[in-house]
Amino acid sequence: MADTDPLIIFTPSGKRGRFPVGTPVLTAARQLGVDLDSVCGGRGICSKCQVAPAFGDFPKHGVTVADTALSEWNEVEARYDRVRGLKSGRRLGCQATIQGDVVIDVPPESQVHRQVVRKAASARPITMDPATRLVLVEVDEPDMHEPSGDLERVQAALKAQWEIEGVHASLPVLAKLQPALRKGEWKVSLALHRPANSEEFEILDIWPGFHEDGLFGLAIDLGSTTIAAHLCDLVTGEVRASSGLMNPQIRFGEDLMSRVSYAMMNPGGDAEMTAAVREAINTLAQEIADEAEINPSLIFETVFVCNPVMHHLLLGIDPVELGQAPFALATSGALTLPASGLDLTAINGQAQTYLLPCIAGHVGADAAAVALSERPDQSEDLVLIVDVGTNAEILLGNKEKVLACSSPTGPAFEGAQISAGQRAAPGAIERVEINPETKEPRFRVIGSELWSDDPGFAEATAVTGVTGICGSGIIEAVAEMRMAGLLDPSGLIGSAAQTSTARSEPEGRTHAYLIHDGTADGGPRITVTQGDIRAIQLAKSALYAGARLLMDQLEVDQVDRVVLAGAFGAHISPKHAMVLGMIPDAPLDKVTSAGNAAGHGARIALCNRAARQEIEEIVGHIHKVETAVEPRFQEHFVNANAIPHATDPFPELAKAAPLPKVSFGASGGGEAGGRRRRRARG
Amino acid sequence: MADTDPLIIFTPSGKRGRFPVGTPVLTAARQLGVDLDSVCGGRGICSKCQVAPAFGDFPKHGVTVADTALSEWNEVEARYDRVRGLKSGRRLGCQATIQGDVVIDVPPESQVHRQVVRKAASARPITMDPATRLVLVEVDEPDMHEPSGDLERVQAALKAQWEIEGVHASLPVLAKLQPALRKGEWKVSLALHRPANSEEFEILDIWPGFHEDGLFGLAIDLGSTTIAAHLCDLVTGEVRASSGLMNPQIRFGEDLMSRVSYAMMNPGGDAEMTAAVREAINTLAQEIADEAEINPSLIFETVFVCNPVMHHLLLGIDPVELGQAPFALATSGALTLPASGLDLTAINGQAQTYLLPCIAGHVGADAAAVALSERPDQSEDLVLIVDVGTNAEILLGNKEKVLACSSPTGPAFEGAQISAGQRAAPGAIERVEINPETKEPRFRVIGSELWSDDPGFAEATAVTGVTGICGSGIIEAVAEMRMAGLLDPSGLIGSAAQTSTARSEPEGRTHAYLIHDGTADGGPRITVTQGDIRAIQLAKSALYAGARLLMDQLEVDQVDRVVLAGAFGAHISPKHAMVLGMIPDAPLDKVTSAGNAAGHGARIALCNRAARQEIEEIVGHIHKVETAVEPRFQEHFVNANAIPHATDPFPELAKAAPLPKVSFGASGGGEAGGRRRRRARG
Fold first, then answer.
1. In chain A, which residue's Cα lies nearest the Cα of B332?
2. Same structural domain for residues A510 and A471?
3. By the 8 A CB rule, do B175 and B154 touch?
4. Domain assignment of residue A216, yes or no
5. Of A148, A403, A487, B71, which is most buried, counting CB atoms within 10 Å of its CB?
6. pLDDT score of A568
7. Residue B170 and residue B57 share a domain
8. Are A149 and B332 inside 8 Å of each other by CB?
9. Interatomic CA distance for residues B637 and B633, integer angstroms
């Protein structure tokens, strides 16, 4: 390039260079290393290289751009505009050529490594660089006198046009190769997969000409109780649909250890559970594809995060070793596998599966995914991350050191083992408030923004009804009951006389609190029973004890911030969690929700291949603490059973059941805790 | 090692070094790079490291070896001897330690890269270095406080004990891993596979403790008409059984082009043929395992050589493109695939398949295998290699240049399309002689060493009978008929009057020659008909024309030597082949048989991983000549139709049908050719 050649300046990168008149903008971008996308390799087909040229004076850049700085709109652009529409002011980078000094803006959607907008406050943004990508190649026709296979000419084209080497094809792709090349007149689109830690590519699928229907991936959070999936567009990163269903393994046991027992007691029991969960994933994949109106055969990747028992059962490994010390995993490393090996028949037959690494026998790929989403190893301050599910995965640390453990909270936080419990779905009570004076409740259900005492509530919820109470709802209900004086610190529900409300009804030898009576409309009667309170107490004690155990290991009494994660992490009210004593003391404004951090971690691994290497490295540096054999865990667990509250409404009962030594408020001081809570409530 | 340390000298390598007293012989061998095998890594289990110490004076080596030069026979050796027997004079290299200067012989069977004895004269010996090998590892037990997966500890053990890295495990192996480790008390045997051109290993199977039952592989020559397989012991290289069966695709068409037509005319026809051949391979694998009395699940590798159409049909690729110019292969490169992808359910579920590369659309992996076996690219003199099957693969060249083509000979050489034809099996006539004076034939059948006029022939063949005539038999019969004056140069069978024998019987408008009449014993009447002669003429003309075409390309009129290969190559008499004009002129002592060179090439690739890289390289340097579009091929084909003979017994008929321009004897001179033939006959 000569000094007299036109100058091209790319924004926002600021990269600049001089190129001969007639150089396509895409060519200049590539030579300067500008992040400008292209799937078709500059053939004017894919429109991914759209750029926005700017005209006029640019004193900052020292150039004036004439309106003749780019070649005129050409036929390819005109046709593209006619057929699909080109946004005003946009040009195709592969068609527009440089005619004079010019400033070219690369809009975010044209960047190869575009970032996907983050949703949860603490979640990291996702940079698109998926393991499976789409490329178009133009392949040489066969020559009888220089014989070579069609695949070998595809490989040569990938090398010449995309600098991609080490490409393999499976038998099903080989079977499609020859017709696709001929139908596409020697232009084909390829779905190319490159596993983490590999220099090799595999062709997952092939289409004649330019493939317009996209590539998709599923990020799946495979929990003991629920299975949740996001369907992601692997080109844009957009979440096209999200869906979930109950884990059908529940019929073999509600918690992990009962499933391990089932496998131990029943020959072939592990295989039954494996078949059940794989079938459910197929159902989910089909449902989510239907919802997004895509063909499920366009799903080329699945990423799973799950706890170790689910991990083994998904893979078809008997989890028996996970049920007894030393809790040895069959494998702890990340895995890249053909999805067909998991019988995932609903999606593309060549689809690939990635499983994040496990941290230890009780701390699985779900905890790894939370670490990938929240990066405690990069935190300046000491962060406690709690991923609440049937097991709670707990991470504590900062950039010096990160510890992890898991705690068997059971499924109560997910609405299971609760008398009126249900999974978070429209109609489920998700928010509860109890007036401390009148002891009357009001609530909100999923699917409506209205409170139950708002005008129009009945109409707004007419379709769903009020069907039960989900995890976040029961937590709020119990905390509110305690603050309204309906519960004593030991968790005992007072009688109507003690609590001054008829909503405290006798139930057997104990009492229950009535939240909603829908029987008049044929709906259920929703109460919080003494059994429900006990289930929540057990769950929250386990959670709290796990967090305390890690704090003991780091020899700290408090943490700088708390991140609540989990399938319903987004819905837990931090205030109520602290009233309950689910989590250790922290300033309320330092308690944030990361939403479904494990699911977010799965999405990161789905959309960014480098993140797979990253998490494999992070996991190697997380120190595991085994709760099951740690005597202090039991001690913390027992001590955390009570429900602390600064202003105890039952001083006479409190004498019988003294406040536990270690619990929320006890260390921080009642008054301060009370103030924080009140402020948060206002 | 100090100068005063004992000296150890290994034979036959001559490698020597000094080691401290107490060093195990195996350790010394490893440090010196001596080729001494071990599967168990020195644990006294596998006995692969047997050595033969020598005692006494070794002036050549400058040492005297005392009988105390090695430690005494230890308990491990005593137990091994008791249980399995240790050959006299042998020690276990891992147990015997150096006590003084010593000379140690490594017997051939203890060498890692032992050579397998070659059978055919021209075939290369095979150096054992298979892609799948057996190793024993001792794995650390899990530690709850340093959690890691069992697989990760197996990987660490492989690295520490075998310097093997990059090891993966498939799901079925992962499912077996934990029970195997515990049952084997943390010692397991692994079948490790490392594909050609790869740095990665895959665990194909795992056994508790030391696996004694061996690993096996199948080298399969998948022909259009017959499928032949060798079952090889992947540790010793020994061929444990060989077997073959007819290719069931014959029902879709006898030759390749009729199978391609079948696929073109019948939707799903290619899939039918694919299913048929895969099923046959399963049958063959089961049969051959039964014959060798091994469990077929111990077969971990299959290597296939085949022509391009069979290659595509085996892989499940529609061969339609191979039926029309430019004869484009879907892929020409070598392939390593899971055998399960080919539905090879009879063998181990994790078994791997390797397909040699194809040279071009008509010159397949079978020709590549012949090249690997015969290495024309390393030949000093100009060698013509002819692999006779339903298609003939022809290679011509030397270390300067190698050309290849294929020629559509049809199945006549394999006994098909011959009136009394049959495949080479007990009872088939394989050798024929006709007395030129009496015109009486005599013959031999497969399964007996006796000629039909030897005493005891009837008894010797009582079980099999005389059932038909196989490929080599029909070639000899036709050549002998010509030399006995029963045929004219155009291939016409003379009448009884012309030939002075009642064995020339009228048959329709032509004549047939009676070789054997078994009707008295309920057997068949075996004649050579005029139709048989025509089929052989077409086949041999195609073969000859292909060879001539390559000679034209190299601008030569003769070759230095000829190698006959093919499933029945070992049985063709070179003399008869030249009488027939199957192959160009060459001194009779320069015509050798390589036996089943394609099958041998398959065995090489099965037993030696490096050979896989070798053949991929060789194939890249072979220049392909396409017979189908070369006008000179047709010309040579037509000219080669006659059956030349130096002493023409029918001079009056010869006038009507002049000798062809290009044919055996015509260039070398009738008299010289005749002498050679006579000398060879004596």
1. A149
2. yes
3. no
4. no
5. A487
6. 55
7. no
8. yes
9. 6
User: Are residues B670 and B545 part of one domain?
Assistant: yes
Whether B330 sits inside 8 A of A150 (CB atoms) is yes
Length of chain A, in residues: 682
Residue B229 Cα, gap to closest chain A Cα (Å): 23
User: Which three-class secondary structure string do you get for A365-385?
Assistant: HHHHHHHHHHCHHHCCCCEEE
Same domain, A397 and A344: no
Indicate if A99 and A198 belong to the same structural domain: no
* B chain contacts of residue A616, beta-carbon cutoff 8 Å: none
Nearest chain B residue to A168 by CA distance is B335
The rounded distance, in Å, linking the Cα atoms of A565 and A580 is 17
Across the interface, which of A147, A151, A331 has its CB nearest the CB of B330?
A151
Paired strand residues for A126: A116
Q: What single letter denotes the amino acid at residue A534?
A: R
Across the interface, do A175 and B315 touch by the CB < 8 Å criterion? Answer: yes
Bridge partners (DSSP) of residue B335 are: B355
**pLDDT tens, B50-106?**
999 988 888 888 888 888 999 999 999 998 888 888 888 899 999 999 999 999 999
Asked if residues B405 and B549 have their Cβ atoms less than 8 Å apart, the reply is yes
Report chain B's C-alpha Rg in angstroms.
Answer: 29
Which is it for strands B167-169 and B201-208: parallel, antiparallel or unpaired?
Answer: parallel
Answer yes or no: do B512 and B429 share one domain.
yes
Q: Are residue B435 and residue B383 in the same domain, yes or no?
A: no
List the single residue in A142, A179, A317 with the smallest CB-CB distance to B175. A317
Which of A142, A179, A337 shows the shortest C-beta gap to B326?
A: A142
Inter-chain CB proximity A171 and B315 less than 8 Å:
yes
pLDDT for A425 equals 78
Instruction: Quote the minimal CA–CA distance from A239 to chain B in Å.
Output: 30
Q: Give chain A positions within 8 Å (CB) of B326.
A: 141-144, 147
The position carrying tokens 């007036």 is: A435
Q: Are residues B676 and B543 in the same domain?
A: yes
Q: How far is A660 from chain B (nearest CA, A)?
A: 30
- Alpha-carbon distance of A531 to A417, in angstroms, equals 9
Instruction: Give the ipTM.
Output: 0.81
Confidence (pTM): 0.81
Preferred mutation among A174, A188, A625 to probe B, highest tally of B CBs within 10 A: A174
- Considering the domain boundaries, does residue B331 fall inside one? no
- CATH number at B160 reads 3.10.20.880
pLDDT (tens digit per residue) in A69-120:
999 999 999 988 888 888 888 999 999 999 999 999 998 888 877 776 545 4
What is the total count of domains within chain B?
Answer: 4
Whichever domain contains A249, its CATH number is 3.30.420.480
How close does chain A come to B133, measured CA to CA in Å? 23
Which chain A residues contact residue B629 at CB under 8 A? 144
Give A-chain residues touching B169 at CB under 8 angstroms.
331
Average pLDDT, chain A: 87
Q: Which domain holds residue B502?
A: 421-525
Domain membership of residue A2 (yes or no) is no
Average pLDDT score over residue span B485-503: 90
Here the CATH number for the domain that contains residue A105 is: 3.10.20.30
Predicted confidence at residue B90, as pLDDT, reads 92
Q: What are phi and psi of B58, to 5 degrees?
A: -130, 75
| Lowest-pLDDT range of A268-282, A287-301, A490-504 | A490-504
Q: What is the enclosing helix (H) or strand (E) of B553?
A: helix B530-554
- Cross-chain residue pair A147–B624, CB shorter than 8 Å: yes
Q: Which residues of B touch A169 (CB under 8 A)?
A: 331
First to last CA, chain A: 66
Q: Is the pLDDT of residue A35 over 70?
A: yes
Residue B27, in any domain of the structure: yes
Query: Which of B636, B655, B514 has the alpha carbon at shortest distance from B581?
Result: B636
Number of C-alpha atoms within 13 angstroms, CB side, residue A282?
Answer: 15
CB atoms within 10 A of CB B681: 10
